[in-house]
Amino acid sequence: MNYYYITGTSRGIGKGFADYLLKNSNNRVIGISRQQSINNNNYKHINLDLTNAEAISNFKFDFHPDAKKIYLINNAGSLGFIKPVGKLDASTIIKNYTLNLIAPSVLSNTFIDFYNTIDAEKVIVNISSGAGKAPVDGWAVYCASKAGVDMFSRVLDEEQKIRMQQSDKKIDIGFKIFSIAPGIVDTEMQNDIRKASKNNFSRLENFIAFKANNELLDPAIVSEKYFKILEDVINIKEVVFSLKDYK
Ligand SMILES: NC(=O)c1ccc[n+]([C@@H]2O[C@H](COP(=O)([O-])OP(=O)(O)OC[C@H]3O[C@@H](n4cnc5c(N)ncnc54)[C@H](OP(=O)(O)O)[C@@H]3O)[C@@H](O)[C@H]2O)c1
């Protein structure tokens, strides 16, 4: 059996991931978000607010003795308010970092600790963004948290490589870590971007045009592409990359 813990399954890309995986009866999806929108016998929902640091700290993974694959997909994320620094309120900044950076970090730590000795394909996929590589005005916390997720992933990968060099267990693959940006996808998040105030966001018209020109990607197609790439995890050399790097 394959087990996929996915944050943010109630809509958008995370729901696309769950819908894609649940077509295969060997897959079990454990979804984590504040709302639930999936009803399937192979789906379990956990209601959790990932801006709540205490709830994240107390999160426990289950033991899956029959697991061939165990994945943690840190997908839940939000732009928070689109405003320049100086106009943000402190609690929004703190909640946004908690959701976008602290939750993936804490869940990854618990995941690696808990499944450390399990013989299965163990993978962490962080849903990254081009915003972690280039600055976008009005998105300071979002850009910084995605850049943080990229670097966190690179360090985890480095640690796993060191672990594998020291391991005498030739079949032990350790954990594989990726931070993969999806491109611009037609979700609620893009809807929120288009609602930003022009005074607070210089690129508003570009994002309105992406939608008007049908340039947004379908979450179902994006999800399929993620899992096609992840079919061969052992041979993926990059840690941080974008879906558009793959044809
Ligand atoms: N759409 C794009 O163009 C795009 C581009 C680059 C990267 N991304 C990344 O892709 C990921 C998914 O984005 P999306 O576009 O699918 O966004 P979305 O449609 O807004 O969905 C966000 C998901 O995150 C969950 N979430 C938000 N706040 C949460 C909280 N406090 N606690 C628990 N779950 C929470 C939501 O569930 P609840 O509201 O039910 O809690 C929802 O399921 C994000 O990490 C985003 O940064 C998206």
Summarize the structure in short.
This protein has helices at residues 12-21, 53-57, 90-115, 140-166, 188-194, 204-212, 219-229; strands at residues 2-7, 27-33, 43-47, 69-74, 121-127, 175-181, 240-242. With 247 residues, the chain is of the alpha/beta class. The mean pLDDT is 96.
Please tell me about this protein's structure.
This protein has 247 residues and is α/β, with parallel strands linked by helices. The chain has one domain (2-185, 218-245): NAD(P)-binding Rossmann-like Domain (Rossmann fold, 3-Layer(aba) Sandwich). The protein is built from seven helices and seven strands, in the order E-H-E-E-H-E-H-E-H-E-H-H-H-E. Strand 5, helix 4 and strand 6 form a beta-alpha-beta unit. The longest helix has 27 residues, at 140-166. A seven-stranded parallel beta sheet has the order 3-2-1-4-5-6-7, with helices on both faces. It binds NADP nicotinamide-adenine-dinucleotide phosphate (NAP). The site of NADP nicotinamide-adenine-dinucleotide phosphate (NAP) has 30 residues, from helix 1 and helix 5.
Largest beta-sheet characterization: 7 strands, parallel
Bound molecules: NADP nicotinamide-adenine-dinucleotide phosphate
The number of domains: 1
Any idea what the shape is? Answer: globular
Strand order of the largest sheet: 3-2-1-4-5-6-7
Terminal Cα span: 29 Å
- Count of DSSP-assigned helices: 7
The class by helix and strand makeup works out as alpha/beta
C-alpha Rg (nearest Å): 18 Å
Look at the structure and give the CATH class.
Answer: Alpha Beta
CATH H-level superfamily title = NAD(P)-binding Rossmann-like Domain
Percent of residues in β-strands: 15-25%
Helix content: 25-40%
Give the tally of β-strands: 7
Mind telling me which CATH architecture this is? 3-Layer(aba) Sandwich
Contiguous low-pLDDT stretches (5 residues minimum) are none
- The CATH topology turns out to be Rossmann fold
- The helix-strand sequence is EHEEHEHEHEHHHE
Mean of all residue-level pLDDT scores: 96
